[in-house]
Amino acid sequence: MGDARPAPEPGQAGPPAQPGPGPVQSAGSPHRATATRILIVEDEAELTRALRINLRARQYDVLTARTGREALAVAASHPPDAVILDLGLPDIDGTEVIVELRRWCKAPIIVLSGRTSPGDKIGALDVGADDYVTKPFAMAELLARLRAALRRDDGEIGQDQRRQATIGHWLVDLAAHQVTRVPGSGEQGRGAGGAAVGEGGADGTETSLRLTPTEWRILEFLVRRPGQLVPSAEILTGVWGPGFQQRTNYLRFHMARLRRKLEANPARPRHLLTEPGMGYRYQP
Ligand code: CA
């Protein structure tokens, strides 16, 4: 049945062809799965540190990047809920980072910059930034603008839509990292064992499913953009890293496993769709 060789999990496939983005600096909060994830893109270490401390104190999950390219790699592998972005970065300009992020990422972007000219502000907003804060700034004001941006984002896209998806009989909750049976959909009700966790698929007895970390990360790319085509190269880069864009067999392998777990009829998927030669689509 197709490609039977197991595809490696990220990190087991040997080094990528190009240097990776470097270690992802996460706040390591034990509540990370449900915390709002903020990506700070800033090359001034002191400012990054101050932002991280303030955001963590408010229960945000914090990722940091010192360069534009690192920011794009981190965002692809750990999609942020919001981005705080300096324009003056050591490699590519922050405006370019906005353009690249906006090709796939809808998270609000707040520019944090020493550039004060109207032209800089207009340029950043025109390419997709949501707000612009000029350095020096008051931390309280930045945090208030961040909250406002996140509220607007929730209003526009809908937190549930980005965080939860129904696939066949299963409710996939990205924030909680749980897959549970949609209430009332279990034809035979709960199995005798109660909340049995099974890997097998929709046979009507299990009330929850277990997915691998790789499967979660692939699903996250798809579910956050319901109805949209997500290019294979983007998922491969985001999950396995730069240099893996051509390894479409990895993706086929894991998508087949996801379908066996989640689709009522894996041979004729209705929600996790393949667009041959292009990518994949989550159809709600
Ligand atoms: Ca800077």
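^ calcium ion complex. The first strand starts at residue 25 and ends at 26. The CA atoms of residues 163 and 174 lie 5 Å apart.
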